[in-house]
Amino acid sequence: MIFQPVLNVFLLALLFTPIAALAVLALVKAPTTGSGTRAGARALWAMRLVMLLACFVMLLRPGIPGGTTQTLATDTDVVLVVDTTASIVAEDWGDGEPRLDGVRADVQKIVDEYPGARFALITFDASADVRMPLTTDTTSLMSSLEVLRPEVTSRSRGSSIGIAAEQLHETLANAAANSEDRSRMVFYFGDGEQTALSPPESFDDSAAFTDAGAVFGYGTAEGGPMKLTSGSFDPAEGEGYIEYQGSNALSVIDEANLQTIAGELGVEYQHRTADSEPTLPDAPSTTVAYSDSGEVGNVIELYWIAALLMAALLGVELARATMLVARLRRLRVRSRSAARAASGSKTEGGAA
Length: 352
Prior knowledge:
Blueprint: E1 2-3, H1 9-28, H2 35-60, E2 62-73, E3 76-83, H3 99-113, E4 118-124, E5 128-135, H4 138-146, H5 165-178, E6 183-190, H6 204-207, E7 212-217, E8 224-225, E9 243-244, E10 247-248, E11 250-251, H7 255-265, E12 268-271, E13 291-301, H8 303-351
Parallel strand pairs: 3-4, 3-6, 6-7, 7-12
Antiparallel strand pairs: 1-2, 2-13, 4-5, 8-11, 9-10
């Protein structure tokens, strides 16, 4: 038998002990006016004490060890660098969908390909931010991508495709310093458009810490229109498009820039389209490929037994309360009838 209390055991004891003491005191000092009344009162307080104990046991969450499951893990850190400039929502992915939809789909495939790996998320537009440090919580990672929005159009002043170079280098260097035996993979997602006046920063410093990965390019040579963004989560926010000289501005992929980034990182470049699957590299050779990270014990929960007992005892209390209310109503009706009868008798006597 094991316990997984919802609160500290000492805190639970502190909360329940005074109430239990009052219930025991009421049980001992049950009314003595008639054996039936005393026995009934004791039974009632004994039931309430059992209900209290059942609640205490339920909060302790008792259980028994069940089977075990094998968890898989790779000794790999995966850093995702995602473009969040206005061009990432250009509508030339698939059937006129934003490029960001393709990014989300490809990240999901990466998460599925490397189970048990740690993931970090870096986004960049006018500046670069580490949205999520290295973690195995892939649910939070995908949630972060689902709520990801590009920069506000009115605040856009141009961006560099290499502005995340410093954050990427720091993330990889810290990961290497803390876990020398782990491999590191980098995946870059963007369209390669350099809208800043200065040349893009280099990713050369990160190459020494990168064992594998890829640069994924999104967009077409024909280009796609970009909706206005305000930073709102309202789907109706983008009812217009960014315009240039009286017509919709188009974002065009720059594959030469993306290939340069891939060369700096020492990884391959892939142009992504909605009708193709990404080619993902194998986990690096330094990785303990899908090794068992240990056994996680399953627990067969037993708190529901105490919950059922509480529900049954509460049902008894409710039934008893209902009967008492009905009895009081009958007594009230009888007293009113008696009062009316007495009033009628006095009236008749006075008339006589």
